[in-house]
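Practice problem: predict the structure.
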Amino acid sequence: MHLNFLSSGNRDDAAIAELARTAAGFASDVVVIKELRGMLRGRALGDLPTLLEQGLWAAGLGREHARHTSDEAAAAWWLLEWARPGDVVGLPVRTLAVRQQLAQVLGGRADIRSVAC
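Answer:
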């Protein structure tokens, strides 16, 4: 499984580490951590990816299986580029424009479920 995820900054460090450990259990292939400025909620830029990466490593996910970006569209496209036929790709996307772009490109080739954020 390939997973694209983020955490908001108003969670405590332990909750963020637990989220990362849970994600590592589901996404053994590739994880892309998004850091969106609107989700920092009092944290410094770079804090959230660091905490999430530490949680991923602690859960045994190899460093070569993860990367992070501040660009939500890039996060989605990286995962889609890595995906192979039959792969499951988790793309929770907060930005409406990015969701619409993905839906347009993927069309009927994927099970696209839109959830309001």
